[in-house]
Amino acid sequence: MLDTGEENRTAFAQAFSGAITARGVSLSWLHRRLKDRANPISVATLSYWRSGERHPEGLRSLTALEDVERLLGLEPGALLDLVSTRARLGSLAPAQNPFTESQVRDAAAETLRLLDAPPIEATRSLSAHVVSTVDENGLLRDRTAQVLVQAVAPFVHEMTYALMSVERVVRRPECTLRGATLVREHLHESEHVYACVLRLDRPLVMGATTMLEIGMAVPPPPAGELPAEDETAAFVMRPIRDLVVWTCFHPDAVPDWTTEFERTPATDGLVSRTLSPRDSIHQSRRDFGPGILGIRWGFDR
């Protein structure tokens, strides 16, 4: 049963107020530091939190609260664990698969069924930073995602992580994990969907969060099948507070062309934009999704 949060609100206010006093800082100082970290919380709101009149609620406040803990020299979770379950969740949008193509949707459904995978919508990502490295042949070599995950089901000990592509072949990666263990994986015969089931090191109750690092080394294509283009992307099924996709190219393989692609309910379909080729490209979105964000690159071979 979800808690009412009244006791949590009092405990949070006391802990927050005590941490500010112990650190010897003002609310104005904290406001400026949060603004510098792109997590602006007004002085008035911080004052409400300290007095207990209000408490952090929803995705934006929870993301800022992690920075508050660091700025005040607290252990991770010292304040976040005092926020009630209902407040942690805030408003919860229904999960939506951003891929509208039937071939990908059908392949994803079959893959999850074969894996006996927990529903992807049992968790949501609050923030994700995805770093991809492109090798000297111009092909995706590896990608590492650092993801802040929140449970939106009563109890989560396993979660599903997936890669999907409409136009490109998804090659089965070799995974390296922190915060979880790989227990099952499957590459669909269409080679458009790869999914794996991860067992969390720390099971989550509803509203609780954990950090995951998911490294994926991508094998090269078979000899003689070197494609002239490749891509990397991230997709989310619910709105995410902070999404960064950073792609780094080998100095000998700066592409001849690069194209950004994006799909959200606001774009009414897939939108593509031409980017200037360079050795490093980053894409950043706030309050993004559900949707897909990525880049495609190629060579005039």
The CATH topology of the largest domain corresponds to Immunoglobulin-like
Structural class: alpha+beta
> Portion of residues in helices?
10-25%
Distance between the termini: 60 Å
* Beta strand %: 35-45%
The H-and-E topology, N to C, reads as HHHHHHEEEEEEEEEEEEE
Oligomeric status of the shown chains?
Answer: single chain
Rg over CA atoms, rounded to whole Å, is 21 Å
**Biggest sheet, in brief?**
6 strands, mixed
Number of helices: 6
* Contiguous uncertain segments of 5+ residues: none
Largest sheet strand order: 4-7-2-1-9-12
Highest CATH level, the class of the largest domain: Mainly Beta
Describe this structure in words.
By secondary structure, the chain is of the alpha+beta class. It has two domains: 6-89, 434 Repressor (Amino-terminal Domain); 102-298, Immunoglobulin-like (Sandwich), CATH 2.60.40. Helices cover 23% and strands 39% of the residues. The protein is built from six helices and 13 strands. The chain has a six-stranded mixed beta sheet with strand order 4-7-2-1-9-12. A four-stranded antiparallel beta sheet has the order 8-13-10-11, with no helix packed on it. A hairpin with a 5-residue loop joins strand 1 (123-134) and strand 2. The longest helix has 18 residues, at 6-23. It is globular, with a radius of gyration of 21 Å. The mean pLDDT is 88.
